[in-house]
Design brief:
CATH class of the largest domain in chain B: Alpha Beta
Distance between the termini of chain A: 51 Å
Shape of chain B: elongated
Number of domains of chain A: 2
Largest sheet of chain A: none
CATH superfamily of the largest domain in chain B: P-loop containing nucleotide triphosphate hydrolases
Number of helices of chain A: 22
Structural class of chain A: mainly alpha
Radius of gyration of chain A: 25 Å
Strand order of the largest sheet of chain B: 6-7-8-3-9-10
Radius of gyration of chain B: 21 Å
Largest sheet of chain B: 6 strands, mixed
CATH topology of the largest domain in chain B: Rossmann fold
CATH architecture of the largest domain in chain B: 3-Layer(aba) Sandwich
Helix content of chain A: over 70%
Number of strands of chain A: 0
Oligomer: heterodimer
Order of helices and strands of chain B: HEEEHEEHEHHHEHEHEEHEHEEHEH
Number of helices of chain B: 12
Chain lengths: 482, 313
């Protein structure tokens, strides 16, 4: 009996790891608040709006809970797949395989069941949810695949017009859809079989490849806790693409790195890496944003003018917006990560100190943000003009995000380690700003007036922060008083 | 004389290395320094002086504030109170000409990982008016540091060596090293210590370094400073300190009487079982005092490790 209990306890401990990790690192209150909100939302909508909306909300809330729990368990199990333990700890690999498979099956079936109860589409849901979660697991095993999934998530919707115009492709697509609709179990059962075969295989058994993969996985998992850092991009991208993105930085470094010309802070920012230097953003624009734009343009070129589906422009605005406000998220992360290098740089002759450093750094970061922001706004306005859609749907988010420039003019000496909450705050501020612009446009305010108000507000925030710059301690080394 | 007062006058406690010479202007002068993190005070009313040509090993337990002290000394961290002067200037307003005389090896060696050693050194060279390329080339070759490999791909030891090369390259007059040999193997540590000694002999550099490896410190540090309770508990030449410090164990009355009789300064006291007292005492003639022990009173020599354990509590 006691042997059975101890056997069960060993399995429980493996599953409890993500919970323990979270409890050790952060407060539980945000989770409690989120759980209460998710439980309370559907009945509230049922009372205030309609039972149908409440049902839809309940399904969405259930999916959020299941996905959140499953991702944390699956990621933890993959990280527990340590190469040393895999070779030396008896039964470790087999237990991990069983738990990973069970977690995948449970999450797939739990979400599919909700779809079945709400819409009668359980078998169809198994196909899509099972495949989706399997792709997530595969990307946890090979983090470089996140980029491919991300590109596909852009490329596939963009290619819909092509599928619709190309007759053989359209027939193939429709027959597939009809087949799934008519006999969903024909798709669901193979999905489950593939899952049973593939999921355990993702857990490795030790050895050189395992060591390398585990290191990559650990770095990727670590990067999730410091959002929007270059480390995150690096962890998610294949090395060759990463080298490509770094090419402008490396070129500039070899050209300017050892020269004595130029502002000393600009040279220091160059040394602090692509995370805080403008060439890093140029690399991202050239090798990530531009291909993304090209894909979209190819996809949309099949559309007649004015045929763009509702909300597509807003979707593109959000997509490019993430690149643009990346400066707001990336600069704090990069500055925090290079705080020890800053300590050394503060000792070199000529480095500005105190208020002079604060002011020069604020200017440099503001220029980076404004440059990225302008590029983003121009691209979106050009797309809106080409597609003949209301420019406000393209420019609302950029306008709403412009005053966030003030976030870069802050007391860097007290900058805490970047966290997902901090990134979420920036994204929420940008979204809230965009919503306000939308609302004002909806009540009839002209674009020119909106632009003037946003610019005025941004200048006021900058003026206010500039006065405070004088009172703040020297910016570098970042975070020493946090 | 209490230990804090002794720390304020490290070279006038009867054990000074340069006692016969006129006191030169200190390279570093710390007065009444208080530093900490928020409400937590790490350094409390600390006084300290480093003189040109001194090699000082800074010893303290984990969390005692060694890194905080070294960072504050370099102006990388603002003190809550007190003052720090480097080459006679307030450290916060250090002129470029004086900054060029300071070298620093931080505790972490995984710096500028996205660059190659060649790029990193070329960059720093562009800032300094004086750059000893021959020394850099010599050390890079002798320590077998790969020049064109990203720093991230160097081993821990190579990164640490590179950090040391960078700090020595501009021939600093003040060299601050925060646990510089932590990730070096014995051969690497020996090479580094040899380089440090040459630096001091050739240029008269003031060196302060923190370490936990007492054997290295014994090999190279002429002076040792113990950090405990937020202050420099004792700063004195190492050889003389080992010669003059003794552990005296007996009843409280015996220990007090013995110290008074021999004019020994009690550095620390700790109560043992059965009412016995153990004192770390410092007197003018260690050998003579050691032979003066009685039947119930034991007097014995101490090692650097004993001093570390006693003075950094």
């Amino acid at each position: 009996m006691s042997a059975a209990v101890s056997h069960l306890a060993a399995w429980q401990r493996m599953l409890a790891v993500p919970w323990q990790q979270h409890r050790n690192r952060a407060s539980m209150w945000p989770l409690v608040v989120l759980a209460v909100a998710l439980v309370a939302l559907p009945p509230l909508l049922g009372v205030l709006v309609s039972p149908v909306v409440a049902r839809d909300a309940a399904v969405v809330c259930w999916i959020i809970v299941v996905i959140a729990v499953w991702v944390s368990i699956a990621l933890s199990l993959m990280l527990q797949n340590d190469p040393v333990a895999a070779r030396l700890v008896p039964g470790h690999v087999s237990r991990l395989r069983i738990l990973l498979l069970l977690s995948w099956a449970f999450a797939t079936l739990a979400i599919s069941l909700a779809f079945g109860l709400a819409y009668g589409l359980a078998a169809q849901a198994i196909i899509f949810v099972g495949t989706g979660l399997l792709l997530v697991l595969v990307a946890m095993r090979w983090p470089g695949l996140w980029l491919l999934w991300w590109l596909l998530s852009w490329a596939l919707p963009s290619s819909v017009p092509w599928w619709e115009r190309n007759e053989p492709a359209r027939v193939l697509l429709l027959s597939g859809v009809h087949q799934v609709a008519a006999q969903p179990l024909l798709g669901a059962i193979p999905t489950l079989v593939v899952g049973v075969l593939v999921v355990p295989w993702l857990v490795q058994r030790g050895g050189h490849d395992h060591v390398r993969a585990h290191r990559r996985r650990a770095r990727w998992a670590r990067s999730l806790r410091t959002p929007s850092s270059f480390e995150q991009y690096q962890a998610q991208m294949p090395g060759s693409l990463w080298r490509l993105i770094h090419a402008p930085y490396r070129f500039w470094l070899s050209r300017e790195g050892s020269r004595q010309r130029g502002g000393i802070l600009q040279r220091a920012l160059l040394l602090l890496g692509p995370g805080v230097h403008w060439t890093g953003y140029v690399g991202m624009a050239l090798f990530v944003a531009a291909p993304m734009l090209l894909l979209i343009c190819v996809g949309l070129s099949y559309l007649e003018p004015g045929q763009l589906p509702d909300g597509a422009m807003l979707g593109m605005s959000i997509g490019f917006g993430m690149v643009a406000i990346g400066v707001l998220q990336q600069a704090p992360t990069a500055l925090h990560q290079t705080r020890r290098e800053q300590a050394l740089l503060m000792l070199v002759p000529g480095m500005p100190r105190g208020h002079a450093l604060n002011l020069q750094l604020a200017r440099a970061l503001a220029l980076q943000f404004i440059g990225t922001w302008l590029g983003y706004a121009v691209v979106l306005l050009a797309l809106a003009s080409w597609l003949r859609v209301d420019p406000i749907s393209a420019i609302a988010l950029p306008l709403g995000a412009l005053p966030l420039l003030g976030l870069l003019w802050c007391d860097w000496s007290r900058q805490p380690a970047p966290s997902p909450a901090l990134a979420m705050r920036t994204a929420l501020f940008a979204a809230a700003g965009g919503l306000v612009v939308f609302a004002l446009a909806h009540v009839g305010m002209r674009l020119l007036v909106l632009g003037t108000i946003t610019l005025g507000l941004t200048l006021a925030i900058v003026a206010w922060r500039r006065r405070r710059l004088r009172r703040w301690p020297q910016a570098w080394p970042t975070g020493r008083w946090a | 004389m209490n230990t804090a007062a002794a720390a304020r006058r490290p070279d006038t406690a009867g054990l000074a290395l340069h006692a016969a010479l006129p006191a030169p202007e200190p390279s570093v002068e710390v007065e009444d320094l208080r530093a900490g993190y928020g409400a937590r005070t790490v350094l409390d009313r600390l006084d300290w002086q480093l003189h040109p040509g001194q090699v000082v090993g800074l010893l303290g337990r984990n969390g005692a504030g060694k890194t905080t002290l070294l960072e504050t000394l370099l102006g990388l961290r603002e003190p809550q109170a007190g003052s720090v002067r480097v080459f006679g200037q307030p450290v916060a307003e250090l002129a470029d000409s004086e900054r060029a005389r300071v070298g620093y090896v931080p505790q972490q060696s995984d710096l500028f990982e996205w660059l190659t050693p060649e790029q990193m050194l070329a960059y720093f060279r562009s800032f300094y008016p004086r750059w000893n390329s021959a020394k850099v080339e010599g050390l890079m070759s002798r320590w077998e540091i790969e020049r064109d490999k990203p720093i991230a791909r160097l081993s821990g030891g190579q990164r640490q060596r590179l950090s040391i090369v960078r700090a020595l390259a501009h021939d600093p007059d003040l060299l601050v090293l925060d646990e510089p040999v932590a990730s070096l193997d014995p051969a690497g540590r020996r090479d580094f210590l040899r380089e440090l000694v040459e630096q001091v002999i050739e240029r008269g550099t003031t060196v302060v370094f923190s370490t936990h490896i007492l054997s290295d410190l014994e090999r190279v540090a002429f002076n040792v400073a113990f950090l405990g309770g937020g202050r420099i508990a004792l700063h004195a030449p190492l050889d003389a300190l080992i010669e003059s410090c003794l552990r005296v164990v007996g009843t409280a009355a015996e220990v007090e009487a013995w110290c008074a009789r021999h004019g020994a300064q009690v550095l620390t006291r700790s109560v043992l079982a059965h009412g016995r007292l153990q004192a770390l005492a410092r007197g003018p003639a260690g050998d003579a005092l050691a032979s003066a022990a009685g039947a119930t009173l034991s007097v014995e020599r101490v090692t650097l490790e004993d001093l570390f354990l006693e003075l950094t509590r």
